[in-house]
Pyridine nucleotide-disulfide oxidoreductase family protein (Herminiimonas fonticola), 380 residues
Amino acid sequence: MKRLVLVGGGHAHLSVLQALAQEKLTDVEVVLVTPSAHQNYSGMLPGWMAGHYSLAQCRIDLQALARAAGVTMVIDRIAGMDADRRCVGLPDGRHIEYDLLSLDVGSEIDVSWLEMAGDKLLPVKPLDAFFDAWPKVLAAANAQSGYRLVVVGGGAAGVELALAAHHALQLNASNAQVDLVASDSGLLPGHAPGVQRRMTLALARAGVQLHAQKAVGIEQGVMLSDATVLQADCVIAATGARAPSWLQPSRLLLDEHGYIAVNGQHQSLSHANVFAAGDICARQDLTMARSGVHAVHAGPVLAANLLATLKRLPLATYKPRKRSLYLLACGDQYAIASWGGFSAEGAWVWRWKDRIDRGFIARHSNSGRRRDTLVSKEAT
Ligand SMILES: Cc1cc2nc3c(=O)[nH]c(=O)nc-3n(C[C@H](O)[C@H](O)[C@H](O)COP(=O)(O)OP(=O)(O)OC[C@H]3O[C@@H](n4cnc5c(N)ncnc54)[C@H](O)[C@@H]3O)c2cc1C
């Protein structure tokens, strides 16, 4: 009996669980280690904050997927691993040995330069903690006149969170102010100028004040590089990603930023029995952004390669598309589309995003699977 250990219930592992449910391996024990029985979907987080979705609509039941795949679930987070000894370690000192390992644990938020904001600091990851904390922030803002919320991070997550927060506060008739700090590299780096222009206008229309400067955390909130102090009651950090520190002593080959170095098959360059997908890995054959899009699209290839390794078959390569589509929610049911040099905006973009996001959840839920089965039955 061989053991395949899946760590993290991230986007790519959803495909792996579904592939395992179809394959029903008899000679392989599969274990999923996940801190929660649910996977909260980041794509719908801004819509949930803005009041468009309930929590139940934004989460995927990992337990149901694991049950359907005959996978044993361990509710915990791994605290370390030794790739030479083929084991992962849990915080209480227990070890789980593996023959084959797949890691899809995402990335962390680098808040090192915001830490002086102390209790006011609210990093968007771990997502579970953010989902717990946001209703408390909203309640505090409603209870206090002149509440000030600062969102730090000018990427897709930062702008969506700032606009979602602003919308939620307005719905509650709060007079809170929302500021967005986008660092000196500006708003939405990597997106086309048309997208940046549209988002700048969306922020201005909403009354979210944009600061294109670096910020550091201070006791009162944040201080900008020109020494302006933004007083804050809450500082949401949607700043750059960083790799988990437990990877450092793992003996896996890491890139210069501490992410797992993988090839086009998403296999570790140092340990052929370790695979990784999503934010945690760094492709060494090409440059690939850390995004949900790639984590989702790499999923079926990861699933195929784990099964191929168990059967000693050739591996497949994940070939990312040159351009990815981003649909950026603007708080109200309105969104901006970004695809290479192309941009568009409107309520129809929001409806498009809504359809894609609800479809993603449905595909990974029991009802979605039942529908898939029905469709394939009809097709045959
Ligand atoms: C607000 C927001 C909006 C975003 N919008 C977009 C978007 O529109 N488009 C886009 O492409 N990207 C978007 N992103 C980025 C996207 O969320 C990430 O790139 C994506 O989630 C990465 O997927 P993943 O599978 O690597 O990890 P995740 O989805 O983060 O999943 C990792 C899982 O591993 C678990 N885990 C973590 N540590 C451990 C451990 N030690 N042991 C066991 N399990 C562990 C976590 O609990 C989690 O369930 C957004 C991010 C945010 C925060």
